[in-house]
Design a protein that fits this description.
Length: about 160
């Protein structure tokens, strides 16, 4: 009895169709995230000028005559920076005093340039906007992107910012 005939073993090198090669795998090209972003920031208390009669006595000297604590200026920050990062950098660069405290897992800005909450009415204080919109999060949680415009505004009455 003879053994049944078996096909010879083949390898990629000896395959009748030639060497088998997988098509090259190419990873999709993604641009690396930018190392830095550029944003603008400004700080105003223009509403106080309209409500000087409400201002707590003794704070008049802290209110700039034109209502601007900081006119729009450009900052270069590391990617991933927040509104808080931008404010602290701008304040440091321009000698502007800040008073902050932790609040609800973020940072609350109580005073900028000695102008603090409740000095111009019970509801007065600082609000910030990014590209004209008031984010619904604390400034330490609001991440900025290249080209964003941050504006801090002091309010004396609800709706005046």
């Amino acid at each position: 009895m003879t053994a049944p005939e078996t096909a010879p073993e083949t390898s990629p090198e000896t395959s009748p169709a030639g060497p088998e090669t997988a098509p090259p795998v190419t990873e999709p090209e993604t641009a690396p995230p930018p190392a830095d972003i550029t944003v603008t920031i400004s700080i105003d208390c223009l509403t106080i000028l309209d409500h000087m009669d409400m201002l707590t006595p003794g704070y008049e000297s802290f209110v700039p005559a034109d209502g601007w604590v900081l006119h729009e200026t450009s900052l270069t920050l590391p990617a991933g920076s927040t509104v808080e990062t931008a404010l602290r950098r701008a304040a440091g660069d321009h000698g502007i005093a800040l008073e902050t405290r932790s609040s609800l897992g973020s940072v609350y800005v109580a005073a900028i340039a000695q102008l603090g909450e409740k000095i111009c009415g019970q509801g007065s204080g600082w609000y910030y906007f990014v590209n004209g919109v008031s984010p619904m999060t604390g400034c330490s949680r609001c991440e900025l992107h290249d080209g964003d415009a941050v504006r801090w505004r002091f309010t004396c009455l609800p709706g005046d910012v």
